[in-house]
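Interim report to the steering committee. The following record documents the input for Putative Dihydrofolate reductase (225 residues).
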Amino acid sequence: MGAGGTALSGGARHRRAAARAAGRPRLSYPSGTLRGMDVSFTGSVFLGMSVDGFIARLDGDLSWLTGGGETGGGETGGAPDDGDGGDFGFAEFLSGIDALVMGRATYEFIAPFADWPYRGKPVHVLSTSLPAGADPRITVHRSLDEAVTALDAAGYRRVYVDGGRTVHAFLAAGLVADLTLSRIPVLIGTGLTPFGELAADVPLEHVGTRSFAGGMVQSTYRVRR
């Protein structure tokens, strides 16, 4: 949910954007028509979450993720690092991405940032309400089908899929090839999840796991076809 910037899913502010996006009603993405479609790109997911699988509390709060406890954690402060001043591999991940696709709410939170986190990367936004051409940094699509067709036509090889509902839609459509999930050592009991119900199981192959100072464990999975 989420989510550029530096640490985990693109930094504390971006992760907060994705969390808020996951909890808002918005564009309903069809999930069945694209399954099995032969496209030029693969979708990649990079998310931070609690051990019990939530990317934010129900109200979008991320203080547990940034170490602020129940009430701490600001929009710009508290972002975790990997113990060596690094970003848990997010910059390396982003360097291998050709383009991004996200939902409207995630985009609208990121849009005002003075430092646009995806400079040089095409950003595609799923929205029925954003005016086309409103922001030269993005391309707006009215449906999942339209977005996938555009991503395919552009010849992208690897696309970063971000935002809770967008991740779920691409998973359901069979368009995600790999997921990197960074689990923070905390249980929050309930919250927002990027996965939700799926028409069928999505079998995964474990690629690798590494741990960081502070107890975060990051695992990468490949979707088995």
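Confidence is low (pLDDT under 50) at residues 3-7, 20-33, 69-79. The committee is asked to note this result when reviewing the revised timeline.
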